[in-house]
Amino acid sequence: MSGTLLAELPEDRATGAIAEIYDEIRRFSGVPYVSSLQRYLATMPGVLEWAWAAIRPAMISGVVPEIGWRLANGVRVAPLPLVSDAQRAAWNLDATASTTIAAIAENFVRVSPVNLMTGACLRLLLTEPPPSGPGIAATWTPPVMLPPMPGNVDPLALPPDQHAVLMRFATEVDGTPFIPALYRQLARWPAFLAWLADALVPRLSAPETNSARAAFRAAALHAAPAIVARLPGLPSMPAPNAETTRRVLATIDRYAETSPEMTMFGRLVLDAI
What we know:
two-stranded antiparallel ribbon; 2% strand
């Protein structure tokens, strides 16, 4: 697997309409950052603008977030061992570091179900006839924003041994390596990430994980048609062409695998730390 990572438009480089969309994504997801799903869509001209305009009524009304969070509450896997005081000392995790790690995990537990539901709805909007529903009243108040995270670590800037550990979590999106941001955030604590890799990587393809992942994905796919049916239609701007649609669907499919993982494993990290 090569070192080239999935393209994205970073938040600090967003301007104009993209910056406004990023701001709304943060606000209505209840987290202080924009996920790599949307940052990747923003690299394709007009795609994030179209996708956000199409799904926005279901986001700002709270329908997508609330259904995602409700479904996530039913997803459980066996917990990790609690991190002991001796381990914290060995890994140089002081109270501040532990608090930051917990905040990172909580961010992913919150945002990943939203991404899963967003992807399930976008798949229908890209592949099915346009909806013609009554619309959705925007009367929802999002939850209080979670604390900010320290930011993703650049895998290519890591020493070889730390890079190798981080790449153990890598998957692919449309043939390009992709490392879920949970692990890129946690890479600033190398000893903790190495422990996490030993504990979690074998579970990525374990039957329990596969079963929980499939159930969560199926529940999102089952819930999406009723949401999309309420939308008033598609935006007037041009929809993605066939090749772009293929790329977007490939990304959505990968997120349908990693979003349940981020939900489950983020909760494991939060509980263990």
